[in-house]
Amino acid sequence: MTPANDFKQSYIHPTYDSWRWELPDNWITYAKDKKIRLRLHSPISPQCSKWVKEDNRTPEELTRMLEEYMTQLCIRYANQPNVQWIDVVNETIAKENVKDPVFGDQKRGEWFGARQGTSLWENPWTIIGFDEESEIRTPLYINKAFEIATQYAPSGVKLIINQHGNFEEVVWERMKKLVSYLREKGYRVDGLGWQAHIDTGWEKIPGNVERLDKFISWCHQHSLEFHITEMNVWIKDGDTTRETEQAETYGKVTSTLLKHVHEGVVGISFWNVRDEDTPNEKWMGCLWDNAGRARPGYERIKQELINHITQ
């Protein structure tokens, strides 16, 4: 189980001197009671507090906020027996071109960074600075997050990097270099996660499935787990007749993962249960509709699993 937002900095440490632990503590208690394994979706990420997004934040202030949050998160939860994965950073790489008059333009495949104001989607942690001696000029916030997680999380808890998008080649090639860089620094990186918010028909676009397939192999060759950490398949025009087509997309992605289960760890988690649980209710992206009816995609995923275990 992956609680969506309750372990994030935006909830736990929303301002410079305030802390909230009630909701994440409740999840830990619930997981113990129900014998559920938890992924802590707790990354240093664009999903940060408004305080962090304010343009007058200094590198020193942001560094202290990051260090305090990640340290206390790991001390409090990393040794809990039901915690199996910790998302350390996510959405570090820009999946599209972004223009900003204050902090400068960003190109797809470059580091996703700060933007003007607090209302836009942004990643202000890059204000902390960059490793100018790194081949890829790695943002220092990524170093610091993995340094702390490596120090405080036991080896049985897997440390994960998540990235979103449509699995663009330029993005994931940079991710490979980032993993190599972090490991050379002595930090533990145990797996990569893809936040797969994709459109119906994604598998029909030339190169998509092949690129995913090869990347999973690359992960296992480098002792990395591969997870799809947030999957849904949008039907953005709201056409219910396309649910069968949607099922094909779910099925193809699932079968691609299942090809690799004997090579290493693969995982798949789904982003919310019903359409109304998402910010885009009319896009019909979930496995169940608002009435609790399972869409064809649900049955297709089950069939892929059955096909795999009966081969």
From TrEMBL:
Keywords: Carbohydrate metabolism, Glycosidase, Hydrolase, Polysaccharide degradation, Signal, Xylan degradation. PROSITE patterns: GH10_2. Its EC number is 3.2.1.8. It catalyses: Endohydrolysis of (1->4)-beta-D-xylosidic linkages in xylans. Residues 1-304 form the GH10 domain. Belongs to the glycosyl hydrolase 10 (cellulase F) family. This is endo-1,4-beta-xylanase. The lineage of its organism: Bacteria, Pseudomonadati, Bacteroidota, Bacteroidia, Bacteroidales.
